[in-house]
Amino acid sequence: MNREFLHKITLLGCLFLLITSSSGTDNGFQTPEQYAQIVQEHFANEEWEAGKELLEEGLQKYPNVSDLEWLMGKYWFHEKNYDQSRYHLVKAIDDNYNNVNAKHLLVDVEDITENYSSAICYVNELLEVNPYWRGLWRRKIELYRKQNNDVEADRLLKRINQIYPNDTILRKDYIYSMEVGYQQMKKGGNRKEAIERLTELIKVSPQNEEYYLDIINLHLQEGNREAALGWSSNGLAAIPGSGALIVKRASILSELARYPEALAFIREQMKRNNSPAIRRMYNDLLMEAARAEKQRDPYVLYGMAYEGGNKNKEALDYLLNTSVTRGYTDDALFYIREAKKQYGNNDKGILYKEYMLYRQMNEDDLAYSTLKKMYEMYPDDYDITLAMSAQHMKKAEKLMELGLYAEALPHVLFVSQKHVDNDVNGAAWEKALSCYINMKRYNEALATLDTITLHFPDYENGTLKRAFILDKMDKTEEALQLYLSAIEQSDEDMRIFYVIGYEELAVPYIKKCMEAGATKKAYEEAIKLVSLNPSSDLGLRYAINSSGLLGKYDEFEKYTAQGINYYPEEPFYQAKRATVLERDKRYEASLEFLKPILNKYPSNKEIIGAFSQSSEYRALQLTKAKEPEKALAVLDTALLYDSQNKSLKYTKGVVYEANRQADSAYYYQKYYEPSIMEYRSFQRHLSGLRSMMLKNEIALTYLRARYGEEDIITSVATAEYTRKGQKNSYTGRLNYAGRSGSASDSMEAEEQTPGGVGIQVQGEWTHHFSPKWSTTVNAAFATKYFPDITADVAVRHYLKNDWEIGAHVGYRRVAAYTKRYEWNDEFFAGSTGDNGYLFTGWNESKTNLLTVGGELAKTIEVVRLNTKLDMHFFNSNFYYNAQIGAKYFPANDGKTNINAMASIGSAPETAVLDYALPGSFSHTNTMVGLGGQYMVSPNITIGLMGTWNTYYNQTNTVRGSSPLNPIESISTRYKNLYNIYAQVYISF
After folding, report:
1. 413 three-class SS
2. Which of 204, 149, 152 minimizes the C-alpha distance to 176?
3. Beta strands in 179-329, from DSSP E residues, in sequence order
4. How far apart are CA 2 and CA 8, in angstroms?
5. What is the pTM of this model?
6. Which listed site, 61, 124, 458, 791, has its alpha carbon 20 to 30 Å from 15?
7. DSSP per-residue letters across 604-648
8. In angstroms, rounded to a whole number, what is the distance separating the alpha carbons of residues 846 and 776?
């Protein structure tokens, strides 16, 4: 028995240890997202092993979850175990193909492990998500180069550089690529292609001295010294004073034994650069020239002969050609003048040499003037026309750089109409197109583009240019449709570029539609853009905003979720997610969602705005739920981040008003800036708040009642003083009633009460336990007419959404009067029917009245509805009275109102008893009333109320001609009683 007992105890202990141990290892995480968040924090703090331990626990509970697999891949990547890293990253993508983080890391893994093809595949998948991410394009180019696929890398680089011509990084990459290409060509001995590549490089980067030196050396290696000299001149024109280029040109001239030319050149250059190296070279050349003097220069010999008078054609031609070739500008000008004397001013050959000389001298105007003269004389000469075209292109380029497109246009049109060379002709048409576009002559631009696409079918930018022009012509829809057609017909690579072009036009067009109020059109265009490029940031933003304005809340939520998927850290989409929660009135959930984001981006205006708006809605929600303290806490938190938000301050004032803190309500609500239409109403409301701030109030009330069928007036006057606080209010009240009625033996009186004066003294206390509960207690004592003793206790409960319920119990000791008749001993019997009884006074009786009742009220904006039921216990009988009422507050000051009421019951309403008005029990009593109050100023409010009571009345009489045979009778009938209440409230 003991063993069995011990065995059970042991099993229970083991079970307890198992449960506690398993619960001890549970970190309390319920979702994979919680694991992922904490693991990332560990990794960010370099706590890799701790993160891995938690990650293994998460994967055990949630195997194959994408984010957890990605984080495990990240851990192994950090440990440089790339196989394990690849294994987990691939699993992450299997679970979620759109896991961008996993794909980025896989690119790094495949790059490090030299699996470049796989890396390129993952880059392509990332480009599908975000096709205009330039960093990914550069990464793809880098991978092609590592794969030794320079051809594809260069092709891609050239294309992306055309798409983004203003991107300095891409431009540098492009230059570097071309530089590497020509270096490889040079090393491979392919000098001609290297020269072509260098020529392109110099166009792109004309200030690079090294390029000039390399192209000069390549020409020298090709044996083309004249071309080398030409490039040295071009280099010095672009980089004046370059020491390396000066030395290079002088060296070439020296190798050609053109010492005088070399010496003259160096002397000229020493004016700009008088460095020791150049001076030393000059001295060395002097020595070489002196040694070469033995071999006399034919140029010198021909010159001496020419000066000696032998001016034949041979000498002149040699001297002219040599002086032009060698750059002896003064000599060349002299010999040109001599040649014109011999051959005339219009000789084509002489004019062409003059033109070439002016070009060498950089005298562009003189060169153009000479060329123009030749063109006018020989318009069909190909070389002259080609040179003329080059001059027009040069002038056009300069004018276009200055923005003078109208002046540049004739030059490019001249070239485009000559058809001298396809490349030159194509460049001219392109410049003409640019001029028309910049001059806003879009019809001519379209016609020019048609010409280009007709004569140059391989022109790649036709669609882009046409769409651009159509957009400028305010035909953006047509331009977008053009892109859509191109996208449908293009391959995958070109599709990306067309989508980029489509987006560049669509975004400003959508913005224009939004600004013009064409929200529906903006929405339609935005969803087209997002369908083409689901990751378009601006497209998603416009889709969200336009769908919200159109009330398409499902679409709003859809695109918000899509934006968060692509841009999980972007505050705009986080703010819109909060808006989704707000629309479902989940304000608290919205705040909980925004708090960590706000901590991360404490200065972001969108997040702050969303947090403020949710806080405002939540505060109003809590206010309706009668939880003002919580509402104020929510608003105070929002104001920490958005301290100048006037709407938040105003809402805080509304909460204070609901909590009966008028001074604070006034302080915060005054920040509100009303529109012109709201101004009067708002000022009225502030006046109401100022009135509420006043702690003291005196109320004066006068009640005047009159019977419908008799001219009998009944009045009650009331004076009261109230001291108001936030939680407690104290009131002292004095009621005065005067009655006209029988006080003697008048037998004509029909009243049920004697005449006289009655006074009632009453005290009242109202206490608010909390925003949801309050109570009112009062007690009163009276001399006459009013209840001798009055005591009431009422409890009120404030519910959500402006509902109120109340219950009350009351006690009154009321007096009832009957007429007293006695026999008149002096009565002398006359005719039959004479009355011998006299009215000698009143019989008074005291009765206890117990009242129990309930009340229900609802406030709907500016209308308050209430219903009330009183149950009376009187003389061991049960009676009731039901009352309904409505108050309309038209002036927004909290006091001015129009009040209507009605009641019915077997007992009069309590006010009839309290004001000592006539009424009856056990028969139907009805009442209707209408009145209102008006706040004249924050200190004075006046009121007027009229009621119409219909009640059952009975009067007792005694008649008879013998003391032994009194005849008692009770006359019964319904009476109408009309009451008017006049009120004045003075606050201070």
Report:
1. helix
2. 204
3. none
4. 10
5. 0.52
6. 61
7. -HHHHHHHHHHHHHHHHHHHHTT-HHHHHHHHHHHHHH-TT-HHH
8. 26
**Cα–Cα distance, 604 to 611 (Å, whole number):** 11
- Nearest CA-CA partner of 930 in 897, 901, 890: 901
Cα 544 from Cα 266, distance rounded (Å): 71
pLDDT, averaged per 10 consecutive residues of the chain (988 residues), comes to 46 40 47 87 89 89 88 91 90 86 89 88 82 77 83 75 66 70 72 80 80 85 86 87 87 84 85 84 80 66 75 82 84 86 82 84 84 84 83 86 89 81 82 87 85 78 82 84 83 82 88 90 90 90 91 90 89 88 88 88 88 91 88 91 89 88 87 85 87 90 84 86 91 88 48 74 93 92 89 92 92 77 62 60 79 93 92 86 93 90 86 62 83 92 92 68 69 79 93
Taking the C-alpha atoms of residue 182 and residue 192, their distance in angstroms, rounded to an integer, is 10
Backbone CA torsion sign across 837, 839, 845, 849? positive
User: Distance between CA 650 and CA 672 in Å, rounded?
Assistant: 6
Rounded Cα–Cα distance for residues 306 and 323 (Å): 14
Q: How far is CA 46 from CA 50, 52, 54, in A?
A: 9, 11, 14
* Angle of helix 100-112 versus helix 116-129 axis, rounded to 10: 160
Instruction: Sort 832 into a burial class: Cβ within 10 Å, 0-12 / 13-18 / 19+.
Output: exposed
The tokens describing 51, both together, are 């993160």
Q: Rg of the chain over CA atoms, in angstroms?
A: 53
Residues 730/764, Cβ–Cβ less than 8 Å: yes
How far CA 532 is from CA of 99, 474, 518, 529, 591, in Å, comes to 20, 22, 22, 5, 34
Tokens of 570: 């972007």
